[in-house]
Write a structure and sequence with these properties.
Layout (H helix, E strand, L loop, with lengths): L6 H24 L5 H27 L12 H21 L1 H16 L6 H25 L6
Helix pairs in contact: 1-2, 3-4, 4-5
Length: 149
């Protein structure tokens, strides 16, 4: 077995390890929640995170590759995606779920859109985004009874 020590290989292993630890920390934290219903979602996500990050870690160990990491790309898109999601998270308690969702969706859409914007794509993407956000709002608010800001 050939062992790769490239930055992409080591970075992938470290990232997988970080997400396994983050999942474990979430499991530990969620165990202290007094309401059993509040434990279900974070624990489910944490278990899925640990399993998928563990599979990624094992796969990368068994089949090392020099190719990895972020690769070539446009950095402003990556930064915009992360910043828009963080801004939405921090503003959600202040401006509410739907307006914060618009910020996250807009940042993600702009970051992901590599093709030329046309009137059709703007209408299609923004209208589908509105439908998705309203459906998530309705799901959390009325079906799951999650109190939203």
């Amino acid at each position: 077995m050939r062992v790769s020590t490239s930055q992409g290989h080591i970075g992938s292993l470290l990232t997988s390890a970080f997400f396994m630890l983050a999942g474990a920390a979430t499991l530990y934290d969620a165990a202290s929640y007094t309401d059993r219903d509040s434990q279900v979602f974070p624990q489910t996500v944490a278990v899925i995170l640990i399993i998928t990050a563990g599979l990624s870690f094992i796969t990368r160990l068994l089949r090392p590759s020099d190719r990895g990491g972020f690769g070539p790309g446009v950095w402003w898109r990556r930064i915009l995606l992360v910043v828009s999601m963080l801004v939405a998270c921090f503003l959600m308690p202040v401006i509410g779920f739907l307006p914060a969702g618009v910020i996250a969706f807009a940042g993600g859409l702009i970051a992901a859109m590599h093709d030329r914007w046309t009137t059709r794509t703007v209408l299609l993407y923004w209208s589908s985004g509105v439908v998705v956000m309203v459906c998530f709002f309705a799901l959390f608010k009325f079906v799951l009874n999650v109190p939203l800001p």
